[in-house]
Amino acid sequence: YDWISIPLVYTQVVTLAVYSFFISSLMGRQFLNPEKNLPGHEVDLIVPVFTFLQFFFYMGWLKVAEALINPFGEDDDDFEMNWLIDRNIQVAYLIVDDMHAEHPELVKDQYWDEGVP
């Protein structure tokens, strides 16, 4: 598992936490049956905005965790390492080719005559 850049346990914990949270939310946030006429529990038909926000946040967190398993892979959302390496080599060769004869002049400073300590 030397190709995994983050611990595999991270994604497993996040996956388990997200799915168990939304299964429990699905059970716990259901509307009551108005036909039972439970005292103190009237029907509430408001859109659960914060539940939607939680769902989008946690599912986004889960997708980021899945993408972080191998950020240098072959998927569409991964870094293009071949292009990065080719670009860095190209820039390095351009620096060497253009600057090989141009170097700054040596100037004597206060440590010029000292040897290696």
Report on this structure.
The protein is mainly alpha-helical and 117 residues long. The protein is built from three helices and no strands. The protein has helices at residues 8-28, 49-67, 81-99. It is elongated, with a radius of gyration of 30 Å.
Average pLDDT for all residues: 78
**Proportion of residues in β-strands:** under 5%
CA-CA gap between termini: 45 Å
Outline the biggest β-sheet.
none
Shape: elongated
Question: What portion of residues is helical?
Answer: 40-55%
What would you report as the Rg, rounded to the nearest angstrom? Answer: 30 Å
Instruction: Please count the beta strands (DSSP E, at least 2 residues each).
Output: 0
Sequence of secondary-structure elements: HHH
Structural class: mainly alpha
Poorly predicted runs of 5 or more residues: none
- Number of H- or I-type helical stretches: 3
Outline:
With 117 residues, the protein is mainly alpha-helical. The chain has helices at residues 8-28, 49-67, 81-99.
Topology (elements, then pairings):
Blueprint: H1 8-28, H2 49-67, H3 81-99
